[in-house]
Amino acid sequence: MKGGGRLRERCFAIAIFGTLLLPLLMASCQRNHADEISNETPDDIEMQAGGSADATDPFELLEAKIEGDSLLLSVRYGGGCSEHVFDLEAGPMLKSLPPKQIISIAHDANGDNCRALIQRTIAFDLSAYRGSPRGVTVIVVDGKELIYEYR
User: Fold this and answer.
1) Which of 21, 103, 116, 131 could join 80 in a cystine, given CB atoms 3.0 to 4.6 angstroms apart?
2) CATH class of 60-149
């Protein structure tokens, strides 16, 4: 019976060893979620129409309209101590009938930290966005579609 006792001890030792080793093996097979790559864009990054994520200084777009070849924007912003610069940033023209041109507005306050509330109208030339021989392009500014007619 001495041989049977040793066999039991061996089986018992193997069972304990396997019981301790199995959780370690299972833990090493789990995926590390920190190494995964996500294709999602974070909600706190707002992409501009031109595809850039460049931040602009804050402003409020009060009104947008087209008169002739000009896009007229009524804007309001804080400042008063430095010159503020506004630029159009255009993405690719969308192929549709009529074509659509998505435009975003970039604002550079030039470090102006003054607190006066400024409201003004700025004008941009739209003639570079004549994308259709039919004489109509839809200009999209801040989600609002404006009809740009030309000859």
Assistant:
1) 116
2) mainly beta
